[in-house]
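Changelog entry

Holo records now carry the ligand SMILES as an explicit input line rather than a separate metadata file. Below, a converted record for S-adenosylmethionine, shown in the new format.
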Amino acid sequence: MALVSNHKFLSSNPVIRNIACLTGLKRPSSPRYVGMKFFRENSTWELDVKRCPCDLEFIDYIKDLGIEGKNIFHFGTGVHHIVGLENQKLDVPNEIIGITAAVPEHQAYVKLVLKNPDLAKYYKVIFADIYTLTANTLPRFDIINLFHLCEFYLPENSKITHHNDASLLQIFIDKLNPDGKIIFYSGSSAWGATKSLIKSLEETGQIKQVHEYKSLVVYTKA
Ligand SMILES: C[S@@+](CC[C@H](N)C(=O)[O-])C[C@H]1O[C@@H](n2cnc3c(N)ncnc32)[C@H](O)[C@@H]1O
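Structure line, unchanged by the conversion:
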């Protein structure tokens, strides 16, 4: 148990890392046990409505609330890119910037755009570690989803990133347009940690909850 709770030891230990890479973690869903390099090179997240319905719920949210022509940030595209593909079908698509830290997921995006160049008009996918983004590299948004906040931060990478989860959340709040919404996913494996960050921002009067939609929790600037 001590080993399992110490992900820094696991991801920096070459023997453990090799075992992790050779066994069931060929397509790791988290960098925690395999390290960022292996995760980046190999991770591919397929659409899985039972394990992770957030992207499908986000699409339903956009459709149900008639959200069109807005600027959207989307944390964690998956290999399926369903958010970009469904957005493209709207009468007035939103302009979405998605992010993935996984090469296969980014390659899937490149292939989709080569087949369907219209996709890139409204859906751009950055290959980057979200913790390296800064106020200078981000525009303002009407809607920001941080579905996977607190799931993937690796403290051992702090020298090559700019943020941890708390400071990342802060720059995204600062990037919200007036009346903009920031949306979290209560089914996240790190929902406990995310909820604590949200609570402290609510307590300091920075954000307030607007509503819930399925497993999504929607906030705005207070
Ligand atoms: C569990 S998958 C979920 C994908 C999608 N939202 C879904 O529900 O099907 C997590 C996503 O977050 C991305 N991700 C993980 N760590 C990241 C990081 N540090 N920076 C940017 N994206 C990251 C992964 O590449 C992947 O696309």
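Spot-checked after migration. Residues 1-10 have pLDDT under 50 and may be disordered. The chain has two domains: 2-42, 54-221.
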